[in-house]
Amino acid sequence: MRILGLDYGEKRIGVAICDDLGVTARAVGTITRKYWKRDIELIEKFLEEYGAERIVIGYPVRLDGTEGIQCEKVNRFIDVLEKSVSVPVVRWNEALSTKEAEGLLREADMNRKKRKTVVDKLAAAIILQDYLDHNP
Q1: Labelling 114: which of 32, 70, 108, 121 has CA 20 to 30 A away?
Q2: Where are the alpha helices (DSSP H) in the chain?
Q3: Pseudo-torsion of CA 19, 22, 24, 25, nearest 10°?
């Protein structure tokens, strides 16, 4: 089953997809946020292009396990998304995925400008890979 991974942010949404066997995730794109309707239309295009049957979206639970204002924002987006798509949407603890992605890009000696263009989709791939690793 192909699964679409999303890293939802205030300015951008990172997008990742897994292989047909659900073993590995890879980054495939970044949506520059404008407004929800347009953002969801672009997500629907990714669903169609890759034939994904589920969406996993990063859920920004705090380190102490509580939900904060960022979770509320993601929940509002998910409420709208679920009304628009015909596949299940799963929340997955993103546990510092963006920080991990930034660290990997720094280790690869990628300059700051280039990192900014790929960090969100890499974070989506990290979130999705964590989901795949925990749900064989």
Answers
A1: 70
A2: 36-50, 69-84, 97-107, 112-134
A3: 70
Could you read off the pLDDT of 51-95 as tens digits, one per residue? Answer: 999 999 999 988 788 888 899 999 999 999 999 999 999 999 987
Q: Which residue has the tokens 């989901």?
A: 131
3-state secondary structure of 96: coil
Interval 12-22: pLDDT, tens: 999 999 999 99
44: left (phi over 0), alpha (psi -120 to 50) or beta: alpha
Burial 42-75 (b: 16+ CB within 10 A, else e): bbeebbeebebebbbbbbbbeeeeeeeebeeebe
Tokens of 92: 């997955």
